[in-house]
Amino acid sequence: MKPTKATITFDNTLKPIELPVLSGTAGNDVIDIRALGKHGVFTYDPGFMSTASCGSQITFIDGEKGLLYHRGYPIEQLAEHCDFLEVSYLLMHGELPNATEKNEFTKTISGHTMLHDQLNNIFRGFRRDAHPMAVMIGVVGSMSAFYFDAMDVYNPQHRAISAHRLLAKIPTIAAWSYKYNSGQPFMYPKNSLNYAENFMHMMFATPCEEYTPNPVLAKAFEKILILHADHEQNASTSTVRLVGSSGANPFASIAAGIASLWGPAHGGANEATLQMLEEIGDVSRIDEFIKRAKDKTDTFRLMGFGHRVYRNMDPRAAIMRKTCHEVLNELGLQDDPMFKLAMELEKIALEDEYFVSRKLYPNVDFYSGIVMRAMGIPNSMFTAIFALARTAGWIAQWSEMNADPEHKIGRPRQLYTGEARREFMPIERRT
Ligand code: CMC
User: Fold this and answer.
1) Closest ligand 1 atom to Cα of 261
2) Lowest mean pLDDT across 1-5, 169-173, 175-179, 297-301
3) Is 307 an active-site residue?
């Protein structure tokens, strides 16, 4: 029988505290510790290693078994049969759209793809060589100054309008961050194209030259978007929820999510993986880098390996690995030295006792970086593309939080380790 209560005995002066045990529809039961604060007891959990920060119906991960479901559908099925907008609809609405709903949703998103013309000036305020992620954080944040007509976060209609605007405009923002950085003119969205193709058009076309996406590459890009659409309560999603928990507007909340995603331990890993492969340079140097990754006195880690939740192969990585081979075959790049290096590194790490015993498998970003590089996407855009895809999940999670009657401003406590109390010392007496 499943336990329904947990008891903690904390201090002899206190009676044992009984705490309810909550069960979800799948996954671990959790001890509901909300009442602890009333007893003057707090828990300590840096990095939220053992904390469920919210209830959610959007994404389920079983890290031991390597499972990822969105609204109950396995990621493998979604990646095989859906396009990105269908998955976004699923995340946001809880059900896959029927044909009419899909058409309507696609039409709504297409109707919002352009940016307010004055937003161009915000791009132009950045240095020419600004990283696309820096530009995206700034431009998405500045949307609060352009689309403030629907920012009442407690109004479901306002939330829906903001969600559509974000989902529709984020590819334009991401593509323009690249265009600005590369010195090419901005390409306006083409609403006759699908979501993934439209982004590729805005990235690769110029006013003098059309871009016709290769269908294998367009499909691979669609998969990258689907596989990155949501991933439960990771650092950036938790950031979006925490920022949004104060009632902050959706554009500020998503801009904060993009900032959190940028770090190399999170979304920045795809860019960092390619940088690492470039630094390794040759198969003969792999051992040296594996040694460094194991050395506790060295801060170097094998980028694209390991995951906080998966102690098994990341199911997204398995799909992306297959896509990686398809793209490299299509482009005749099977003998590309960088790809060979990556495959050798993967093989060595998968056999190495250090990585095996810690269950460190290649993650999705190990392969997605290689795919994007083969597609001609520059390294600096990898994390921006992750942000574009994850916007679907951030919006869904942000909306779920705002619709939840139990939601409260996020306000963790701390274990204070500073000076307890001391008396003020005038400056002339300070040593
Ligand atoms: N290379 C070498 N050692 C590693 C690595 C790595 N990539 N990842 C974890 N370890 C070791 C770590 O040193 C520790 O060893 P020990 O037990 O001897 O101290 C053990 O494995 C557990 O690591 P941890 O840091 O406690 O694990 P975590 O859950 O806090 O970190 C992680 C997860 C993803 C931040 C980490 O694995 C990492 O830094 N990986 C490289 C960056 C990366 O690829 N990130 C992308 C994650 S997937 C995309 C996303 O969700 O954003």
Assistant:
1) 52
2) 1-5
3) yes
- pLDDT at res. 213: 86
Q: How far is CA 216 from CA 83, 221, 256, 326, 384, in A?
A: 14, 9, 33, 8, 21
Residue 237, ligand 1, Cβ within 6 A: no
Burial class (CB in 10 A: 0-12, 13-18, 19+), 318: middle
The strand pairing partners of 305, in sequence order, are 362
DSSP letter, residue 68? E
- Mean pLDDT (whole number) for 121-138: 96
Contacts of residue 234, Cβ cutoff 8 Å, sequence gap at least 6: 266, 308
Which candidate, 289, 299, 309, places its Cα nearest to that of 352?
289
Return the pLDDT at 339. 87
Report the nearest-CA residue for atom 37 of ligand 1.
306
Express each pLDDT in 302-325 by its tens digit: 999 999 899 888 999 999 999 999
> What is the Cα gyration radius of the chain?
23
Token pair 């530009």 in the structure block, residue: 135
Q: Using a CB cutoff of 8 Å and minimum separation of 24, what contacts does 15-23 make?
A: 17/41
What pLDDT, on the 0 to 100 scale, is given for residue 121? 94
365 part of the active site = yes
Angle (CA) 213-216-219 rounded to 5° is 85
Contact by Cβ (8 Å): 352, 236: no
| Mean pLDDT, all residues of the chain | 94
Is 1's pLDDT higher than 80? no
Q: What would the two tokens of residue 424 be?
A: 């003020």
Q: How far is the CA of 49 from the centre of ligand 1 (A)?
A: 13
Spatial separation of the C-alpha atoms in residues 48 and 83, rounded to whole Å: 33
pLDDT in tens, 243-299: 999 999 999 999 999 999 999 999 998 889 999 999 999 999 999 999 999 999 999
